[in-house]
């Protein structure tokens, strides 16, 4: 398993393994302390010699020394392991934060490019008369007009511009670009005389 700060990124299972190891060490420390308790309650600092300086004969000196030594070693391991757990958690959180920030930035960039890719409209379709050339071509109410033949946002002054283009294009297909539900749509429109008013309807 890679140590935190190693070449490969820390995973959640790495942290789980570290925590499992920490629990094992804690259990071993507890067992050693219980062993000392069983030896007439000698802790880590009780003297192992009697008043005259002889080794105590009421306890298992070997067991007590071994348990004390193990506790010191295990506590050092535990301390080092806690540091590893802490570092690993920091890395995980930092990576989560980074990923979250990256996802947000990407979403924002996506939204921005979506907006930039849609040209600006200069007029909006209010009504479309059934059976009219506009209706037949597929124009819909609320379509936002971006290009109408040669007219676009840069040269549009008023609706008269569109009327002029329509009169000059009678019987000839015109390319019309609209924005419909946030998407660019191309419509082929042929102005011509019909039962109603005008050449479009």
TrEMBL record:
GO BP, sorted A to Z: proteasome regulatory particle assembly
Coiled-coil spans in chain: 71-98
Keyword field contains tRNA processing: no
One Gene Ontology cellular component annotation held by this UniProt entry: cytoplasm
Domain PDZ positions: 106-182
InterPro entries, sorted: Nas2_N, PDZ, PDZ_6, PDZ_sf, PSMD9
UniProt entry tagged with the keyword Chloroplast: no
SUPFAM superfamilies: PDZ domain-like
Alphabetized UniProt keyword annotations: Chaperone, Coiled coil
Alphabetized SMART domains for the sequence: PDZ (SM00228)
Pfam family of the protein (one): PDZ_6
Function: Acts as a chaperone during the assembly of the 26S proteasome, specifically of the base subcomplex of the PA700/19S regulatory complex (RC). During the base subcomplex assembly is part of an intermediate PSMD9:PSMC6:PSMC3 module, also known as modulator trimer complex; PSMD9 is released during the further base assembly process.
Record note on quaternary structure: Interacts with PSMC3. Part of a transient complex (modulator) containing PSMD9, PSMC6 and PSMC3 formed during the assembly of the 26S proteasome.
Family statement drawn from the similarity comment of this UniProt entry: Belongs to the proteasome subunit p27 family.
PANTHER family: 26S PROTEASOME NON-ATPASE REGULATORY SUBUNIT 9
Listed name of the protein: 26S proteasome non-ATPase regulatory subunit 9
Species the sequence originates in: Pelecanoides urinatrix (Common diving petrel)
Chain's gene name: Psmd9
